[in-house]
Write a structure and sequence with these properties.
The protein has 73 residues and is an all-alpha fold. It has one domain. Helix content is 81%, strand content 0%. It has two helices and no strands. The protein has helices at 10-38, 40-69. Helix 1 (10-38) packs antiparallel against helix 2 (40-69).
């Protein structure tokens, strides 16, 4: 019996990235609901700043990850 292992290919990468986006969106929705129960104005601020922070991380995320992985001297 042959066991097939998952290979990292392009489709796997895009599927993984898509799932991460969906999970992030659900996180913001649930955090927004929780914050909304505390204070409506705070919830509006959290929901309004999410797209900005998300797109900034998409643009500079690789750079930040590389800098974090480098050993500190």
């Amino acid at each position: 019996m042959k066991i097939k292992f998952l290979r990292a290919n392009k489709n796997y990468h895009y599927r993984n990235q898509f799932l991460n986006i969906i999970v992030d969106i659900f996180k913001v929705i649930f955090i927004g609901i929780a914050v909304f129960s505390i204070n409506i104005y705070l919830a509006v601020i959290v929901i309004a700043t999410f797209p900005f922070s998300y797109f900034v991380f998409l643009k500079y995320g690789k750079i930040l990850k590389r800098k974090i992985k480098k050993p500190q001297k």
